[in-house]
Amino acid sequence: SVLLHDGSDPRLSRLIQDVIRTSSLMAARPRPTSWRGRLLTLKRTWLLAGEIRSRKQAPPSAPRDLLDVIIAVAEPDQPLEELVDILVAFAKSISSTGFALGWALYLLATEGDPGPGVPSDWIVLETLRLWPTPWLLGRFAKRQHELAGRSINQGDVVIACPYLVNRHADY
């Protein structure tokens, strides 16, 4: 109800629930084929863009959900697709937040209460160090260079694993 208020089109609510479910790191479903993924993106954009148009024509007196807030702070000429992408990004991040919270609870349960002298933000930082949300990061090399004694060409993909780096004794 934070992303879309209870009075929203039920099709939109189901769609947002699907976005959250499929973006979850714990989802045990196979990835949709490329045509299914494109169809889902088209449906999501079409439904949410229609909702945004409707809400812009009759804005509520007070925000009812995050979509109302996004619409209220958007530039008047901002493309609807960008507003759709913002809401979808929030929906996808819910699983990441839950992932980090779950590991924080695990850390507290297995290591015990750190005591009053340890700030609560330390628990969050330690959780993200031990179990980072992105376990692999990939970037395209913008220029040719050398990294750890290896030649990297422009356009090569360089992959880093925060999970391993954050557990390496030297770092």
Summarize the structure.
With 171 residues, the chain is mostly helical.
How is this fold's topology laid out?
Blueprint: H1 10-23, H2 34-57, H3 66-73, H4 80-111, H5 120-130, E1 137-140, E2 145-147, E3 150-152, E4 157-160, H6 162-165
Antiparallel strand pairs: 1-4, 2-3
Helix pairs in contact: 1-4, 2-4, 4-5
Strand sequence of the main sheet, in spatial order? 1-4
Beta-strand percent range: 5-15%
Tell me the radius of gyration.
Answer: 21 Å
Order of helices and strands: HHHHHEEEEH
Mean pLDDT: 84
Biggest β-sheet strands, sense, barrel: 2 strands, antiparallel
The level of helicity is: 40-55%
Taken from the alpha-carbon principal axes, the silhouette is extended
**What structural class should be given to the helix and strand makeup?**
mainly alpha
Q: How many strand segments?
A: 4
Spatial separation of the terminal alpha carbons: 42 Å
Helical run tally? 6
Low-confidence stretches: 25-29
Q: How would you describe what is shown here?
A:
With 171 residues, the chain is mostly helical. The chain has 6 helices and 4 strands, in the order H-H-H-H-H-E-E-E-E-H. A hairpin with a 2-residue loop joins strand 2 and strand 3. The longest helix is centred in the middle third of the chain and has 32 residues, at 80-111. The model is unreliable at 25-29 (pLDDT under 50).
What are the main properties of this structure?
4 strands, two-stranded antiparallel sheet, mainly alpha, 171 residues, single chain
